[in-house]
Design a protein that fits this description.
Blueprint: E1 5-10, H1 17-29, E2 33-36, H2 43-53, E3 57-62, H3 67-71, H4 74-80, E4 87-92, H5 101-110, E5 115-117, H6 123-137
Parallel strand pairs: 1-2, 1-3, 3-4, 4-5
GO molecular function: cobalamin binding; metal ion binding; methylaspartate mutase activity
Function: Catalyzes the carbon skeleton rearrangement of L-glutamate to L-threo-3-methylaspartate ((2S,3S)-3-methylaspartate).
Subunit structure: Heterotetramer composed of 2 epsilon subunits (GlmE) and 2 sigma subunits (GlmS). GlmE exists as a homodimer and GlmS as a monomer.
Length: 138
């Protein structure tokens, strides 16, 4: 597999660094060039990193329940930056409180994400999905 570049980070005021480090390690071991922008990352930082590195995907993490607020408009910012077709994944504890996953997933898909993952999803699931999605891109 030729090396593909992905941007990972934790969006908004979220400081959950452990999951971010786990994803960095897992995707690096899977052969991806990982650009980790860390925690407390803004939408603009994700987009800027993707543009600067020619990334193939942006993977957004959020664990503090404000993912919907923090992620709204990210697809539009990608479009404005000329990377409107970039793969966008999001995962974690994306909303406050316990809610059924399917409506939460639908919310994020409607916001322009290609994939959304509930809390506790193993990195291998996203790695396999990314492999499939990138293969479809050619």
């Amino acid at each position: 597999m030729s090396s593909k570049t992905i941007i990972i980070g934790v969006i908004g005021a979220d400081v959950h660094a452990v999951g971010n480090k786990i994803l960095d390690y897992a995707f690096t071991q899977a052969g991806y060039e990982v650009v980790n922008i860390g925690v407390l990352a803004s939408q603009e930082e994700f987009v800027k990193a993707a543009v600067e590195t020619g990334a193939n995907a942006i993977l957004v993490s959020s664990l503090y329940g404000h993912g919907e607020i923090d992620c709204r408009g990210l697809r539009e910012k990608c479009e404005e930056a000329g990377i409107g077709n970039i793969l966008l994944y999001v995962g974690g504890n994306l909303v406050v409180g316990k809610k059924e996953w399917e409506p939460v997933k639908e919310t994020f898909m409607n916001m322009g994400f290609d994939r959304a993952y509930p809390p506790g999803t193993a990195p291998e699931v996203a790695i396999e999905d990314l492999k499939k999605d990138l293969a479809q891109e050619g």
